[in-house]
């Protein structure tokens, strides 16, 4: 059984992630690719169409940060970690831990 998630919190995280992406997108083709991969997820979250957590293997791939060198964009990485954590049903304690590491 899928875990219900806070639709409004996910929507807010999606909007923050979109803003972080758009801040870097004009100057980095890898950010543009990252955006294209995430766009369907962002659209669904912003429209309130995701109400249950997705499995980690179904969520957008976080390895793109390492593979494409995106870890240099701290705000983008933090926004993605928050969005992905909410999308996959991470509890508040886990999200707080990630924030403490600078990952959410």
Task: Specify the helix fraction band.
Answer: 55-70%
Give the SSE order as H and E letters.
HHHHH
Shape: globular
Average pLDDT number: 86
Main structural class: mainly alpha
User: Major sheet, described briefly?
Assistant: none
What is the secondary structure topology, with strand pairs?
Blueprint: H1 7-24, H2 29-46, H3 64-67, H4 74-87, H5 92-100
Helix pairs in contact: 1-2, 1-4, 4-5
Task: Summarize the model shown.
The chain is an all-alpha fold.
Please describe what this structure looks like.
The protein is mainly α. The protein has helices at 7-24, 29-46, 64-67, 74-87, 92-100. It is globular and about 35 Å long.
Features:
mainly alpha; globular; 104 residues; 5 helices
